[in-house]
Design brief:
- Helix content is 89%, strand content 0%.
- The chain has 64 residues and is mostly helical.
- The protein has a domain at 24-64.
- It is elongated.
- It starts with a helix and ends with a helix.
Length: 64
């Protein structure tokens, strides 16, 4: 049982050491990256919407 708790303690010590190695983004980097992701989602979404509308129009034209 003692070995179990020592392994848990070692895990959290190692976790803390690894978290200290992480290079966290600045607030400006975080905002810029978030905006890039939102813009990319909007562009891809608009592209899918346009393709869906074109295919829908094409199928309706073929159907009748």
């Amino acid at each position: 049982m003692k070995k179990f708790f020592s392994k848990i303690g070692k895990f959290f010590k190692d976790l803390k050491a690894e978290i200290k190695k992480v290079i966290w983004p600045t607030k400006k980097q975080l905002i810029n990256n978030t905006l890039i992701v939102i813009i990319a989602i909007l562009i891809i979404g608009a592209g899918i919407w346009i393709l869906d509308a074109l295919f829908s129009w094409g199928f309706m034209a073929l159907k009748g």
